[in-house]
UniProtKB/TrEMBL annotation:
GO terms for cellular component: extracellular region. The keyword Cell inner membrane does not apply. Its main location: secreted. Gene3D superfamilies: Cupredoxins - blue copper proteins. It comes from the Eukaryota. GO terms for molecular function: copper ion binding; oxidoreductase activity. Residues 10-110, 211-345 form the Plastocyanin-like domain. Keywords: Copper, Glycoprotein, Metal-binding, Oxidoreductase, Repeat, Secreted. It is found in: Secreted. Belongs to the multicopper oxidase family. The lineage of its organism: Eukaryota, Viridiplantae, Streptophyta, Embryophyta, Tracheophyta. This is Laccase 42. It comes from Salvia miltiorrhiza (Chinese sage). Its cofactor is Cu cation.
Amino acid sequence: MLLTNNVGSPDTYKVFVKPGKTYLIKLVNAVMDNIMFFKIAGHNLTVVGTDGAYTKPMTTDYVAISPGQTIDVLLETNQPPSHYYMAARIYASGGEFVTTPATAIIEYVGNHYTPPPSPFLPSFPEYNDSAASVDFTDQLRSLANDVDVPKIVDKTLFYTLSVNQLPCLRSSCLGATRLLASVNNVSLLLPKTDILQAYYRGIIGVYDSDFPDFPPSSFNYTQGVKAKEQSGPGFGTAVRVLAYNTTVEVVFQGTNLGGGVEHPMHLHGYSFYVVGSGLGNYDRVRGPATYNLVDPPLMENIAVPRNGWTAIRFRANNPGVWYMHCHFERHVSWGMGMVFIVKDGEGPHQKMLPPPPDMPPC
């Protein structure tokens, strides 16, 4: 069931508004496995922020929002007073999903009009309209110009994102294979001792420091289909260690393994600039030529398009152990994640903080 502010039918959530006003609506996608389209019938919205950072005002009649992402929009109540549905519906480029929207009601206050028998329902992009999702995200821009995005990069990392198959030999298996997920063909195994504690306390043997900067092999990522026995990932608990203040570019490359789907990628401990994206295979010559290094959006969660790529940049100036993963619950539970360890700097305020004294034991 899809809910709006934890309310579903028959107790529909209502927002009462006055005509001629402007309201700030803060959206968060708390759905575990789907990007969502959001609309308010008869009204445009002005996007002014995402993931806690201001954006240039962008007028639109719909929003595409990933799991874990936040988007701030302004609603102008400039339509004839009535009752209007605001609604969220699943966007999914592949598979079968329930497409009945979650709804709430925008209700203009006053008794000088006759409400309709049923509120007006917005018309959505098609549930599998990839262009609508990509186009919305591509229009986001930081509020300021000449933002502090790294212009010179110390480390460039190329990470493929895949849904893999592996033979399933258990009697409980419904088929001959089971699904896994990976970054650079490494499916993350979570250790019994957490990586943060192991790093801070110098515990040996919990993780390896050899997470690959590039995939083990190159192929036509977005159209080629590797044989099942070749598309199975390796398993590992590996991290990528970064020196303090390293400037980093990560290029996420979606692959067609598992049919190809979007991957909303999230990095703990950092906001990052989304400097470029495109469909198909990333080209290391033509791709950077399209980068926006003037006003790219500052985000914490970015949907890598289906069978496409996205490039982000950040400065590694927050020492610690930081998890990066797909925000689809099924993908992260299948192993689509990795860990950055950012080492301490030399200054007194460039050190990893110790655990709080009242931290409960595991």
